[in-house]
Amino acid sequence: MSTLLTLSGTAGIREKIALPDGSVLTVKLVTNDGEVLAATAVLANAGETPFELVVDAVLAPQPETLRLWAMLRTDVGVWGTPELVSIREDLILRRVDD
User: Fold this and answer.
1) Helix/strand/coil for 36
2) Over 70: is that where the pLDDT of 98 sits?
3) How far is it, in rounded angstroms, from Cα 59 to Cα 98?
4) How far apart are the first and last CA of the chain?
5) I need a surface site. Which of 57, 60, 72, 81 has the fewest CB within 10 A?
6) Which residues face 6 on adjacent strands?
7) Which is more confident, 63 or 39?
8) Which of 91, 87, 72 is nearest to 37 (CA)?
């Protein structure tokens, strides 16, 4: 029988700006070779935005090896993770140049 693995976290940016309404945070849970196991999109908050990913535990027998990818899309710019991030690290997004 399969069980579900739930990963929770937060993502934020270093800049202290008010995010416009409709800003969207997208987070993907991926394997080391880039296979997407789970994804979510949520409306972003000012400050850190919480997210939750749920994956079939059979697909993630060693969850500590999984990585995260994130993007925050707003009307004033895009922030993201330039590289895959360990699930143990905070998701601090960097501005992506247009």
Assistant:
1) strand
2) no
3) 35
4) 46
5) 57
6) 54
7) 39
8) 87
Longest Cα separation, the chain: 46
Q: Say how far apart CA 5 and CA 10 lie, in whole Å.
A: 17
User: Tens digits of per-residue pLDDT, 46-90?
Assistant: 889 999 999 999 998 888 899 999 999 999 899 999 899 999 888
Distance from C-alpha of 95 to C-alpha of 98, rounded to nearest angstrom: 9
Sign of CA dihedral 29, 70, 50, 12: positive
Residue type, 81: T
Tell me how long the chain is: 98
- Tokens 């905070």 locate to 90
C-alpha to C-alpha distance for 21 and 5, rounded to whole angstroms: 31
Q: Are 33 and 86 in contact (CB under 8 A)?
A: no
